[in-house]
Design goal:
By secondary structure, this protein is α/β, with parallel strands linked by helices. It is built from 6 helices and 7 strands. A 7-stranded mixed β-sheet has the order 3-2-4-5-1-6-7, with helices on both faces. The longest helix has 20 residues.
Length: 178
Amino acid sequence: MTRHCLVLGGARSGKTSFAERLALRAGSRPAYLATANMLDDEMRDRVRSHQAGRGERFTTIEEPVELSHMIIKAGATHDVILVDCLTLWITNLLIASEDVATAVSELCATLTEFKAAKVILVSNEVGLGIVPDNAMARTFRDLAGSAHQRLGEICDDVYFVAAGLPLTMKGDAPQMPS
Protein backbone atom coordinates (compact mmCIF):
# COMPACT_ATOMS: atom_id res chain seq x y z
CA MET A 1 0.00 0.00 0.00
CA THR A 2 1.29 3.45 -0.94
CA ARG A 3 1.20 5.82 2.02
CA HIS A 4 1.27 9.48 1.10
CA CYS A 5 2.81 11.84 3.64
CA LEU A 6 2.60 15.51 4.64
CA VAL A 7 5.59 17.12 6.37
CA LEU A 8 4.95 20.51 7.98
CA GLY A 9 7.26 22.86 9.83
CA GLY A 10 8.47 26.40 10.09
CA ALA A 11 11.24 28.00 8.06
CA ARG A 12 14.58 26.26 8.63
CA SER A 13 12.94 23.69 10.92
CA GLY A 14 14.58 20.68 9.26
CA LYS A 15 11.42 19.57 7.45
CA THR A 16 13.06 19.21 4.03
CA SER A 17 15.99 17.20 5.38
CA PHE A 18 13.55 14.96 7.23
CA ALA A 19 11.43 14.52 4.09
CA GLU A 20 14.54 13.68 2.03
CA ARG A 21 15.51 10.97 4.53
CA LEU A 22 11.95 9.58 4.40
CA ALA A 23 12.08 9.55 0.59
CA LEU A 24 15.44 7.79 0.42
CA ARG A 25 14.19 5.11 2.82
CA ALA A 26 10.90 4.70 0.94
CA GLY A 27 12.19 3.99 -2.54
CA SER A 28 15.09 3.38 -4.87
CA ARG A 29 14.08 5.81 -7.64
CA PRO A 30 13.21 9.09 -5.85
CA ALA A 31 12.17 12.25 -7.64
CA TYR A 32 12.41 15.72 -6.15
CA LEU A 33 9.57 17.84 -7.53
CA ALA A 34 10.63 21.43 -6.90
CA THR A 35 8.02 24.20 -7.05
CA ALA A 36 10.33 27.21 -6.61
CA ASN A 37 10.48 29.99 -9.15
CA MET A 38 13.93 31.55 -9.10
CA LEU A 39 12.92 35.19 -9.40
CA ASP A 40 15.91 36.78 -7.66
CA ASP A 41 19.50 36.08 -6.66
CA GLU A 42 18.62 35.12 -3.10
CA MET A 43 16.16 32.45 -4.32
CA ARG A 44 18.67 31.18 -6.90
CA ASP A 45 21.23 30.78 -4.11
CA ARG A 46 18.73 28.88 -1.94
CA VAL A 47 17.83 26.54 -4.80
CA ARG A 48 21.51 25.89 -5.60
CA SER A 49 22.19 25.14 -1.94
CA HIS A 50 19.28 22.66 -1.81
CA GLN A 51 20.44 21.02 -5.05
CA ALA A 52 24.01 20.69 -3.79
CA GLY A 53 22.78 19.15 -0.55
CA ARG A 54 20.73 16.54 -2.42
CA GLY A 55 23.55 15.68 -4.79
CA GLU A 56 22.73 12.95 -7.29
CA ARG A 57 20.42 10.99 -4.99
CA PHE A 58 17.25 12.47 -6.53
CA THR A 59 16.07 13.20 -10.04
CA THR A 60 15.06 16.86 -9.91
CA ILE A 61 11.88 17.92 -11.69
CA GLU A 62 10.94 21.59 -11.70
CA GLU A 63 7.25 22.51 -11.92
CA PRO A 64 5.95 25.66 -10.24
CA VAL A 65 2.20 25.33 -10.99
CA GLU A 66 1.00 22.06 -12.62
CA LEU A 67 1.63 19.91 -9.57
CA SER A 68 -1.01 17.19 -10.06
CA HIS A 69 -0.05 16.63 -13.68
CA MET A 70 3.64 16.39 -12.82
CA ILE A 71 3.04 13.94 -9.95
CA ILE A 72 1.22 11.61 -12.33
CA LYS A 73 3.96 11.98 -14.95
CA ALA A 74 6.77 11.40 -12.42
CA GLY A 75 5.00 8.30 -11.10
CA ALA A 76 5.72 6.54 -14.39
CA THR A 77 9.45 6.36 -13.61
CA HIS A 78 9.82 7.02 -9.87
CA ASP A 79 8.70 5.06 -6.81
CA VAL A 80 8.74 8.05 -4.45
CA ILE A 81 8.09 11.73 -5.22
CA LEU A 82 9.11 14.45 -2.77
CA VAL A 83 7.25 17.73 -3.43
CA ASP A 84 9.03 20.78 -1.99
CA CYS A 85 7.18 22.92 -1.24
CA LEU A 86 3.45 23.51 -1.17
CA THR A 87 3.62 27.05 0.17
CA LEU A 88 5.79 28.09 -2.80
CA TRP A 89 3.28 26.32 -5.07
CA ILE A 90 0.43 28.29 -3.49
CA THR A 91 2.41 31.50 -3.96
CA ASN A 92 2.98 30.62 -7.63
CA LEU A 93 -0.75 29.97 -8.08
CA LEU A 94 -1.61 33.33 -6.51
CA ILE A 95 0.90 35.17 -8.71
CA ALA A 96 -0.56 33.43 -11.78
CA SER A 97 -4.11 34.42 -10.66
CA GLU A 98 -5.09 30.75 -10.45
CA ASP A 99 -7.84 29.47 -8.15
CA VAL A 100 -5.90 27.96 -5.24
CA ALA A 101 -8.89 26.11 -3.76
CA THR A 102 -9.55 24.41 -7.11
CA ALA A 103 -5.87 23.46 -7.49
CA VAL A 104 -5.82 22.02 -3.96
CA SER A 105 -8.98 20.04 -4.73
CA GLU A 106 -7.31 18.68 -7.86
CA LEU A 107 -4.20 17.74 -5.86
CA CYS A 108 -6.33 15.97 -3.22
CA ALA A 109 -8.21 14.05 -5.92
CA THR A 110 -4.95 13.09 -7.60
CA LEU A 111 -3.40 11.84 -4.37
CA THR A 112 -6.51 9.88 -3.42
CA GLU A 113 -6.31 7.91 -6.68
CA PHE A 114 -2.53 7.89 -7.21
CA LYS A 115 -0.85 4.64 -6.17
CA ALA A 116 2.10 4.48 -8.60
CA ALA A 117 4.51 6.06 -6.10
CA LYS A 118 4.67 7.37 -2.55
CA VAL A 119 4.22 11.15 -2.45
CA ILE A 120 5.84 13.18 0.33
CA LEU A 121 4.57 16.76 0.50
CA VAL A 122 6.62 19.43 2.30
CA SER A 123 5.06 22.70 3.39
CA ASN A 124 5.70 25.64 5.68
CA GLU A 125 3.29 25.93 8.57
CA VAL A 126 2.59 29.66 8.54
CA GLY A 127 -0.39 29.79 10.88
CA LEU A 128 1.47 29.71 14.19
CA GLY A 129 2.60 33.33 14.26
CA ILE A 130 0.93 36.69 14.56
CA VAL A 131 -1.94 37.70 12.29
CA PRO A 132 -0.40 39.30 9.18
CA ASP A 133 -0.91 43.05 8.83
CA ASN A 134 -2.05 43.02 5.20
CA ALA A 135 -4.86 41.38 3.25
CA MET A 136 -2.66 39.45 0.79
CA ALA A 137 -0.58 37.88 3.57
CA ARG A 138 -3.75 36.94 5.48
CA THR A 139 -5.23 35.40 2.33
CA PHE A 140 -2.03 33.42 1.76
CA ARG A 141 -1.99 32.20 5.37
CA ASP A 142 -5.64 31.17 5.16
CA LEU A 143 -5.18 29.35 1.84
CA ALA A 144 -2.11 27.50 3.15
CA GLY A 145 -3.93 26.54 6.34
CA SER A 146 -6.91 25.25 4.39
CA ALA A 147 -4.64 23.27 2.05
CA HIS A 148 -2.81 21.72 5.01
CA GLN A 149 -6.09 20.67 6.64
CA ARG A 150 -7.38 19.06 3.45
CA LEU A 151 -4.09 17.29 2.71
CA GLY A 152 -3.67 16.23 6.33
CA GLU A 153 -7.04 14.54 6.10
CA ILE A 154 -6.14 12.42 3.05
CA CYS A 155 -2.47 11.72 3.77
CA ASP A 156 -1.73 8.56 5.72
CA ASP A 157 1.16 10.07 7.66
CA VAL A 158 1.52 13.68 8.85
CA TYR A 159 4.59 15.00 10.64
CA PHE A 160 5.42 18.36 12.18
CA VAL A 161 9.14 19.16 12.35
CA ALA A 162 10.69 21.65 14.78
CA ALA A 163 14.39 21.92 15.66
CA GLY A 164 15.01 19.04 13.25
CA LEU A 165 12.83 16.70 15.32
CA PRO A 166 9.69 15.15 13.83
CA LEU A 167 6.47 14.90 15.78
CA THR A 168 4.06 12.29 14.43
CA MET A 169 0.67 13.94 14.13
CA LYS A 170 -1.03 11.13 12.21
CA GLY A 171 -0.04 7.64 11.12
CA ASP A 172 3.13 5.71 11.80
CA ALA A 173 6.19 7.11 13.52
CA PRO A 174 9.07 7.25 11.02
CA GLN A 175 11.61 4.45 11.13
CA MET A 176 14.84 6.42 10.98
CA PRO A 177 18.33 5.34 11.96
CA SER A 178 19.62 7.04 15.09
